[in-house]
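step=encode ok
step=design start
structure_in=
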């Protein structure tokens, strides 16, 4: 429909029926400015939607016109002056922030490190417990052997410990000393002399004058070899060191 045809026809139909503007507005209760806007096709002053359709139907009914035909002309005329619909913007899914992949990678890395540290801690605890258990078992099983070893070591050390014999003379006398069944000295010692001899097991000491000789075994004084003025013989060993 050409511009102005709808408004001109509406006005012509009203005037052909000799219906004044005042009569039409009173009968339809439509404001004069809306009726004038329809006849002048001043769409900016008219409400759209159901209100505009309601005005057209009411006027068509009062003037005895076909409502549907007049509504079709109204819609066509108004559509020509409506601004073209804006193109529908495509709804795009917003892209994730740039930092999100880095944050996700960091979280995964922290989880992996935490898992590794947990496994390492548990393994160390298990290894320490196992080592402690094995050590305890070995200690228990080795106790009898350790006792035997200590006894053997003590016996060996006591056996292998050196005996030190100190021979001091107050007067000249003949002295004969056998260490571990070996003759180590057989001669006369002058007065006020001191000699030392070593042995592993025992000494056999003989002196011509028992009172002229002072014997010390590992620093411990030994009893006289015999009666005063007489010769004497004595065997000395580890037993003589006991209290």
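sequence_out=
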């Amino acid at each position: 429909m050409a511009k102005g045809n709808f408004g001109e026809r509406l006005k012509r139909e009203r005037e052909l029926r000799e219906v004044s503007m005042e009569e039409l507005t009173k009968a339809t209760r439509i404001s004069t400015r809306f009726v004038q806007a329809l006849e002048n096709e001043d769409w900016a002053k008219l409400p759209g939607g159901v209100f505009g359709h309601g005005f057209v139907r009411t006027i068509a009914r009062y003037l005895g016109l076909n409502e549907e035909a007049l509504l079709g002309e109204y819609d066509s005329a108004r559509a020509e002056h409506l601004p073209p619909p804006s193109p529908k913007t495509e709804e795009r899914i917003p892209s994730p922030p740039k930092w999100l992949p880095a944050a996700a990678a960091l979280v995964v890395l922290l989880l992996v490190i935490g898992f590794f540290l947990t496994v390492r801690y548990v393994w160390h605890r298990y290894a320490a417990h196992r080592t402690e258990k094995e050590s305890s078992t070995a200690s228990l099983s080795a106790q009898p052997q350790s006792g035997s070893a200590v006894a053997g070591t003590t016996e060996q050390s006591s056996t292998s410990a050196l005996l030190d014999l100190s021979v001091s003379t107050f007067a000249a006398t003949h002295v004969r000393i056998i260490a571990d069944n070996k003759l180590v000295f057989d001669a006369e010692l002058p007065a006020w002399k001191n000699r030392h001899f070593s042995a592993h097991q025992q000494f056999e000491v003989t002196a011509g004058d028992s009172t002229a000789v002072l014997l010390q075994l590992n620093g411990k004084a030994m009893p006289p070899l015999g009666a005063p003025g007489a010769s004497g013989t004595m065997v000395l060993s580890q037993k003589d060191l006991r209290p």
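step=design ok
step=annotate ok -> The radius of gyration is 69 Å.
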